[in-house]
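Q: Please design a sequence for this.
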């Protein structure tokens, strides 16, 4: 009887929609149940799964909503539950390509990455956080409430016993697969371990939306993703389409360490592309699981980039960030960078196009602010009217709910735009 009903329903559906392609979007929502692999889970996924069962459509990986290596009516039921927000479990692909099944609802979260905590604040689920890593506790200005929570130690080597004492439903770590697998082996099955890379442009919306589904904050996640996508596409992308490949600026982006360059798969590389630049280190061999590579001084001098952008870690160094109002420290760091041996004749140095930027803007959900700064540095005439500080302020006020006035506080880039 169930099969007969299904056949009748599907026959009617086929009359109206012979094909149900995924809607055009910039990303795929990597949740099992997203059968047509677009950016959301809705009734189209129910229909698509029914068509797979009837062999009118090829199977997709994410159609296996129950994640049991079978696609049947149980998957249809699971998708319907997800749509209603009544699912008891949700299976996702995390940022380390790990398949993780999470029991719901989630009421207690431990966060081992300041960038993930920032994303959780975006979807307004920070009240469920019960423990944090030390990189969050030191960011007292940005995380006034979260920094007061119990610390479970450093983000890449947390104290497992302290995590267990907090009895979380889920632990959110950084991206590296080894970190997630190591923690998973030490924690009971009742605690889900997920890896996130919320600083990467290509992963941003997918990550925020998955958090929205997991934490029952879909509306909040959708609001931010709409803001983010419109900003990247309309404010930046449409203008950059006017620039030919031959006119693109060649950029060297340096990580925290000296001569450590961002390659393909890194937040720096994706930020560079989004700002319209050509990353000169893009295709260099990288460290396994960490797309950053040590480059030779001679190689860099020979490449002679048009622009140099250096990431700086400032959270507790007194050089920059939310806790610093004096740009002197950032200025000194820039002077030291430009005075490196052999750099005097480089184009970026002779044209004074060397820039410093705070890591907390570079590798977090605020990366769209960094994209605006870099786009203005690369193409000042094209982006003359854009104000990165105004967008940064909107982000802090609307999405981080932070009482912080950028006109009075903070040092995030050097030189400041008014001196460029």
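A: Design:
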């Amino acid at each position: 009887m169930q099969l007969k009903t299904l056949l009748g329903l599907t026959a009617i559906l086929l009359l109206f929609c012979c094909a149900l392609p995924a809607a055009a979007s910039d990303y795929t929502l990597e949740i099992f149940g997203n059968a047509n692999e677009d950016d959301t889970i809705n009734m189209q996924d129910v229909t698509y799964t029914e068509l797979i069962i009837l062999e009118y459509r090829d199977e997709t990986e994410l159609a296996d909503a129950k994640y049991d290596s079978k696609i049947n009516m149980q998957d249809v039921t699971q998708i319907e539950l997800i749509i209603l927000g009544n699912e008891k479990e949700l299976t996702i692909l995390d940022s380390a390509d790990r398949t993780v099944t999470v029991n719901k609802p989630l009421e207690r979260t431990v966060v081992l990455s300041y960038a993930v905590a920032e994303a959780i604040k975006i979807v307004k689920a920070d009240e469920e956080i019960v423990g944090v890593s030390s990189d969050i506790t030191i960011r007292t200005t940005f995380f006034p409430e979260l920094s007061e929570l119990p610390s479970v130690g450093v983000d890449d080597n947390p104290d497992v016993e302290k995590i267990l004492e907090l009895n979380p439903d889920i632990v959110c770590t950084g991206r590296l697969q080894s970190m997630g697998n190591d923690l998973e082996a030490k924690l009971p099955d009742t605690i889900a371990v997920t890896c996130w890379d919320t600083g990467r442009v290509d992963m941003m919306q997918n990550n925020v939306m998955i958090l929205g589904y997991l934490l029952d904050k879909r509306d909040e996640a959708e609001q931010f993703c709409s803001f983010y996508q419109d900003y990247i596409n309309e404010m930046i992308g449409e203008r950059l389409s006017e620039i030919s490949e031959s006119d693109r600026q060649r950029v060297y982006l340096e990580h925290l360490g000296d001569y450590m360059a961002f390659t393909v798969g890194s937040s720096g590389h994706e930020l560079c592309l989004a700002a319209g630049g050509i990353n000169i280190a893009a295709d260099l061999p990288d460290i396994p699981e960490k797309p950053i590579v040590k480059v030779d001084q001679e190689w860099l001098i020979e490449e002679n980039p048009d622009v140099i952008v250096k990431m700086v870690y400032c959270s507790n160094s007194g050089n920059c960030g939310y806790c610093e109002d004096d740009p002197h420290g950032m200025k000194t760091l820039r002077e030291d960078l430009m005075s490196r041996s052999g750099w005097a004749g480089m184009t970026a140095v002779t044209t004074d196009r060397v820039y410093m930027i705070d890591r907390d803007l570079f590798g977090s959900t605020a990366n769209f602010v960094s994209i605006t700064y870099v786009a203005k540095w690369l193409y000042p005439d094209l982006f003359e009217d854009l104000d990165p500080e105004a967008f940064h302020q909107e982000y802090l006020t609307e999405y981080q709910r932070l009482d912080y006035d950028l006109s009075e506080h903070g040092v995030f880039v050097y030189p400041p735009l008014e001196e460029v």
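Q: Thanks. Anything notable?
A: Confidence is low (pLDDT under 50) at residues 3-24. The first strand starts at residue 89 and ends at 93.
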